[in-house]
Design goal:
- This protein is an alpha+beta fold and 276 residues long.
- It has a single domain, classed as Nuclear Transport Factor 2, Chain: A, CATH 3.10.450.50.
- It has helices at 41-47, 54-60, 106-120, 128-138, 141-155, 158-163, 259-268, and strands spanning 20-23, 93-95, 98-100, 177-193, 196-210, 219-232, 235-245, 272-275.
- The protein has a four-stranded antiparallel β-sheet.
- A hairpin with a 2-residue loop joins strand 4 and strand 5.
- The protein is globular.
- The protein starts with 19 loop residues before the first strand and ends with a strand.
Length: 276
């Protein structure tokens, strides 16, 4: 399930990393979050980590969300990793349906962060039992309990659920399909130590209700989440995380699909697991 503690970071490839998408018949149940509306500051405080409710809260509460357009000087920007194969096989184990057993390397940390973003952005987060399993799987033990308590309060809020168009038990109205899916576009290592790595995950989200009677149609948004990962229990786990808007690409002049087409696509196209 993991590499031993003695491996540290000496086996990083340095360059030659590639990102591979691996189709998964049983992704994480679903979807992303965050429509075009930004989360309320009060709810963010309750949750304690914006990344976990970005989509949903953003969709429910449009307001002034800080923009993420600022960028560091060119000389300090991390360089994109080449796309040549690394030769490292992706993980083939799962815990609670989430890929696990990542290598104790920079590549392993990036893969873990991308997979965790997908899990935390899925529709399963709106189901209490599945949410508890996700939180206990992706967060470090000393962080999981606090995260679970805060998220339970947020996801069980009647106002919050009503704003995103769900019933009090977190299910969509009859005849509509709830969509919440995160699709990572890239990752980068911000800093690294033998037992701690900070990774940025840039991703797009699909969030909303698909159906002819939907008042909250599925929309697309872009975010970057920063994960501080710690090596614990022979795997990478989230110690802390935060989220910001963007970078957001310029939208093309494309006709939006019908509710039926969107529902069919979500039901027929599974999600992905990610390996770098």
């Amino acid at each position: 399930m993991s590499h031993g503690d003695e491996q540290g970071y000496s086996d990083y490839g340095g360059t030659g990393h590639t990102r591979t998408r691996l189709p998964d018949q049983d992704p994480y149940g679903g979807a992303p979050r965050r429509p075009t509306r930004s989360p309320s500051r009060g709810l963010i405080t309750v949750v304690g980590v914006v990344v976990l409710l970005i989509a949903a809260i953003a969709f429910a509460n449009r307001g002034d969300h800080p923009s993420a357009n600022s960028s560091p000087p060119k000389g300090t920007r991390p360089q994109a990793a080449p796309t040549s194969p690394t030769g490292t096989h992706p993980v083939n184990t799962k815990t609670g349906g989430i890929p696990s057993g990542f290598a104790r390397t920079q590549q392993g940390a990036e893969s873990a962060a991308a997979n965790y973003a997908v899990a935390l952005g899925s529709a399963d987060m709106f189901d209490a039992a599945k949410r508890h399993e996700i939180v206990s799987t992706v967060y470090a033990p000393e962080t999981a309990a606090a995260r679970q308590s805060a998220m339970d309060r947020a996801y069980s809020s009647r106002d919050f659920l009503a704003n995103v168009g769900l019933t009090e038990d977190g299910t969509p109205p009859k005849g509509q399909l709830f969509v919440s899916r995160v699709v990572p576009a890239g990752t980068k290592v911000v800093s690294s130590k033998p037992d701690e790595t900070t990774v940025d995950v840039w991703y797009t989200t699909l969030f909303g209700l698909s159906g002819d009677a939907s008042k909250n149609p599925v929309t697309e948004s872009w975010y970057t989440s920063t994960y501080v990962l710690k090596w614990t229990g022979n795997d990478w786990k989230i110690a802390s995380d935060q989220q910001k808007d963007g970078p957001v690409p310029l939208g093309r002049d494309q006709r939006a699909s019908t509710a039926d087409d969107m529902t069919k696509a979500v039901e027929e196209y599974g999600g992905f697991t990610y390996a770098r």
